[in-house]
Q: What sequence folds into this?
């Protein structure tokens, strides 16, 4: 009975992770511009991938595998925001304008003083 | 913390992760640990206290909670049939009072992984973060959320 517990727990976490990853993918398709898409890809994507790795750690019952899976989660959480930020910044600097619904763009007024545009 | 003690701990972690406790592998782990400690020698010049560890844990707990809330919120927005009306995107300038690169980097990363906000750029003098907001309600509320939440905790960890 108890031996099956980690399988059920791991299965639930795995399905949750897959669901978040699916929603992230749907978000990338449905949202209007790159900046809003990065919200879906970075947040739901990181949580989805992280939960799948946590499921691996729970199911494996092996310290070596579990340690590596948890370290994988940490790296995922460290690198995902960096790539989201880089994509958003790169597309802004290459003059890809935010979607027409965008209410305020305070970066636009500052862009002339930004050394990175040189 | 004593570097020799740290090297032994790092060598053991290395052996545990690579799943091989042979003498040669432990030696390799100690060597890599030594190089890592040498590269980061300036990073722990300051005093380490249990209070600081507690602050780091408090920041980590807040972060994990916000991350889950953030993923759920984005998931709900994505599933709405009237997606266009649910979005009020904006890029706003958020003034910050952090000094070092490490603090600004950590804060920018934390902002990206929390509900409805994404760091796009930082000003050259590190005084302003440009944040993309998915669903903009009140500009001042977004700014004070960041200032009183993560920015305060980040400053406590680094002080």
A:
């Amino acid at each position: 009975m108890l031996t099956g517990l980690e399988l059920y727990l791991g299965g639930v976490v795995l399905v949750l992770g897959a669901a978040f990853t699916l929603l992230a993918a749907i978000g990338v398709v449905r949202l209007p511009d790159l900046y809003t898409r990065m919200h879906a890809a970075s947040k739901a994507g990181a949580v989805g991938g992280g939960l799948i790795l946590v499921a691996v750690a729970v199911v494996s019952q092996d310290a070596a595998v579990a340690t590596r899976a948890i370290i994988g989660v940490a790296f995922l959480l460290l690198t995902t925001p960096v790539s989201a930020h880089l994509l958003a910044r790169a597309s802004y600097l290459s003059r890809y304008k935010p979607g027409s619904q965008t209410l305020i763009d305070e970066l636009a007024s500052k862009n002339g003083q930004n050394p990175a545009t040189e | 913390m004593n570097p020799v003690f740290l090297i032994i701990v790092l060598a053991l972690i290395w052996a545990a992760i690579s799943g091989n406790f042979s003498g040669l592998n432990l030696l390799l782990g100690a060597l890599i640990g030594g190089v890592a400690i040498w590269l980061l020698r300036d990073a722990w010049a300051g005093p380490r206290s249990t209070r600081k560890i507690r602050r780091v844990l408090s920041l980590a707990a807040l972060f994990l909670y916000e991350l889950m809330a953030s993923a759920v919120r984005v998931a709900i927005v994505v599933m709405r049939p009237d997606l266009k009306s649910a979005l009020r995107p904006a890029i706003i300038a958020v003034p910050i009072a952090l000094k070092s690169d490490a603090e600004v980097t950590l804060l920018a990363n934390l902002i990206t992984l929390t509900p409805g906000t994404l760091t796009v750029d930082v000003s050259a003098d590190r005084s302003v973060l440009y944040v993309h907001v998915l669903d903009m309600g009140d500009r001042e509320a977004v700014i004070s959320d960041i200032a009183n939440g993560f920015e305060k905790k980040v400053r406590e960890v680094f002080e």
